[in-house]
Amino acid sequence: xxxxxxxxxxxxxxxxxxxxxxxxxxxxxxxxxxxxxxxxxxxxxxxxxxxxxxxxxxxxxxxxxxxxxxxxxxxxxxxxxxxxxxxxxxxxxxxxxxxxxxxxxxxxxxxxxxxxxxxxxxxxxxxxxxxxxxxxxxxxxxxxxxxxxxxxxxxxxxxxxxxxxxxxxxxxxxxxxxxxxxxxxxxxxxxxxxx
Length: 195
Fold this sequence. Notes:
It is a single chain. The protein is an alpha+beta fold and 195 residues long. Helices cover 33% and strands 24% of the residues. The strands form 3 sheets. The protein has a 6-stranded mixed β-sheet with strand order 1-10-9-4-5-6. A two-stranded antiparallel ribbon has the order 2-3. Strands 7-8 form a two-stranded antiparallel ribbon. Helix 2 packs across helix 5 (181-192). It is globular, with a radius of gyration of 21 Å. Residues 9-20 have low confidence and may be disordered.
């Protein structure tokens, strides 16, 4: 191969590399193409059946928790509310979905009031224990009741992270608790923009 041909070949390779799509630089864990977290069908706090398909066209952030959670749950939902605020008009393109893992204490009314405290458009889902277990299994979410100090009291250990779906309804990210609103806003902005 002559020097000229080598130069042409090198330029062609460089051009092809420049044309290949770059993976977005997400701050959360990219789970695009995951074989889980594909379905969610539970009643909302008003008793209306809801599915992931309803949220197509928006970036949906799904979080499993419980209303008596002392720290992770309220912090996560407050963070999502802050992200929506930071995104300005694009904040309307983000749908927060809270799924209770404590249907024993979290009645529909309790779930509805809880999510409304974070945003008027937040959706709270509450199924039976069996429905909740099935949804958790589909999302690979762990939750377990832990006895408290008082008789009959308990708390719940659970997966502390959010699942993010793009506007086409595909699961794309898992965002661990504690990453901060700025990192989440950056990721959601990429997805809103078509990443």
